[in-house]
Design brief:
By secondary structure, this protein is mainly alpha-helical. Helix 2 crosses helix 3, helix 7 packs across helix 10 and helix 8 crosses helix 10. The longest helix has 25 residues. The protein starts with a helix and ends with a helix.
């Protein structure tokens, strides 16, 4: 009985919560909702979110925490509240980006010094954009360049294999063709980038 009272009290430590979750005690999950949800809900609702979206995001954040703890890969390098806030914030920023909202919202910049989440998401989006641009550039490149570059860079065929496959007189000619194809690909890639 005293253990239940302790779980329900507010002065339970982060370590105790993590150990409780690791042991499969659902009361600690409920405790997380009770203690940490209000501030995260406030952050989401005051940044273009609804109550339901706040619940969904927080549930996802708790699942991330739960997975990390149960896979025993979890080392808490900050307060549990900061960790959950960071994960929720990251998930919410991704959702905002998908919804097309501006990220310059009121108190979403809280914890910026600790988290650097905005930069992570921006970097990730830039990489995704580059992949999209590269795919588009490859589609526009045409044959035989498209197959030649895929054979060399993706299938790891040797220059000798490429020489035989494409019927070049020697591997030097194949290398020259590969270089020309790469130059064309770069040109197309940067044209696509300018269009965006």
């Amino acid at each position: 009985m005293s253990k239940i009272k302790h779980i329900l009290s507010t002065d339970i430590s982060d370590t105790e919560i993590i150990q409780g979750i690791a042991q499969g005690d659902n009361r600690y999950i409920n405790k997380i909702y009770k203690v940490f949800y209000p501030s995260i809900a406030h952050m989401i609702i005051s940044n273009n979110g609804t109550d339901d979206e706040a619940k969904d995001i927080f549930q996802e954040a708790v699942m991330v925490l739960y997975d990390k703890i149960t896979q025993q890969k979890f080392e808490l390098n900050s307060k549990l509240s900061t960790f959950l806030y960071a994960v929720s914030r990251r998930l919410w920023l991704k959702q905002l980006a998908r919804k097309g909202h501006s990220r310059n919202t009121s108190d979403i910049s809280d914890f910026e010094d600790i988290l650097h989440v905005e930069e992570d998401i921006q970097q990730h989006q830039e990489i995704e954009n580059k992949f999209d641009q590269m795919n588009e550039a490859m589609n526009q490149l045409g044959e035989p360049c498209q197959t030649l570059l895929k054979d060399f860079y993706i299938k790891n065929l040797s220059m000798r294999d490429i020489t035989d496959k494409f019927g070049y007189t020697n591997s030097d000619n194949a290398k020259t063709q590969k270089y020309k194809c790469l130059q064309r690909l770069k040109k197309i890639f940067f044209t696509i980038k300018i269009k965006e």
